[in-house]
Design goal:
alpha+beta, 9-stranded mixed barrel, two-stranded antiparallel ribbon, globular
């Protein structure tokens, strides 16, 4: 065998072994309870653990006006002390991607073929199916959490979600049935987790919209039961949040 042939075989062998080693890399263990971190809530934050400030969405003109009108109406209502009704008023869950930015704790459970995310508020459950092909938009019945598939790329959980109901809006931002949510979930420190979220929508957005949430591990915390059952709040005919006041006997 010529020397040049031996060199080629050696290079191919090293490359193959390297690829196998990379494929066998163990995913990090992110199981546990997590609380939002940063944004004024990460006191004593270590450098590089608090994500950059979120940017506003770059909406197409017709949708930008709708979004601005909604934001201004919400601010005006808050100033008057009569806030606009939200999904919480009707006991509706956050859905995606709002649940990932909730001020309530989250629990993440890793199991074979699935990563499960549970939000304390309303005991919301989201399932990320691992190493499965994504469905087409037509195959997914729109819901609060959509259809999420993911895979580990080294130490990062890469997730793709489609099928969110149009009335489930993140920060009042309009979207179409073609909205796609991409996430890159990874540890930036032993107890600090980031979820880098990118929203794509060819109908409403001029360009993808990216923002990041950070979480701090809560080693001794167990999620509490949170059920919306008192029915004190309701939405009036003006879209305002109201509270039923019991009549005096």
């Amino acid at each position: 065998m010529k020397t040049s042939s031996k060199i080629v075989i050696a290079v191919v062998t090293v490359a193959t072994l390297g690829a196998r080693a990379q494929g066998q890399q163990q995913a990090p263990d992110i199981t546990g309870s997590w609380e939002r971190y940063g944004g004024g809530r990460g006191g004593g934050a270590a450098a590089g653990t608090v994500p950059p400030p979120a940017q506003q969405p770059q909406l197409k003109p017709q949708y930008a006006k709708e979004w601005q009108d909604r934001v201004q109406a919400a601010r005006a209502a808050e100033a008057k002390g009569a806030p606009l009704a939200t999904g919480y008023t009707s006991c509706l869950p956050d859905g995606m991607p709002t649940m990932m930015g909730a001020m309530f704790p989250l629990e993440i459970l890793q199991s074979k073929g699935q990563v499960t995310v549970i939000e304390e508020a309303f005991t919301q459950v989201r399932r990320i199916l691992l190493d499965k092909p994504q469905k087409s938009f037509d195959e997914v019945e729109p819901g609060f959490y959509g259809h999420s598939v993911g895979k580990w790329e080294g130490d990062t959980l890469v997730v793709d979600t489609i099928g969110i109901k149009e009335n489930i809006r993140y920060q009042n931002t309009p979207h179409s049935p073609q909205m796609r949510i991409r996430e890159r979930i990874h540890l930036v420190a032993p107890t600090i987790l980031w979820d880098e979220i990118t929203i794509e929508d060819p109908v409403t957005l001029d360009k993808p919209w990216t923002f990041t949430y950070a979480y701090r591990k809560m080693p001794d915390y167990t999620l509490l039961e949170y059920i919306c059952e008192d029915n004190r709040e309701y939405v009036d005919d003006k879209g305002l949040q109201q509270i039923h006041v019991p009549s005096k006997p």
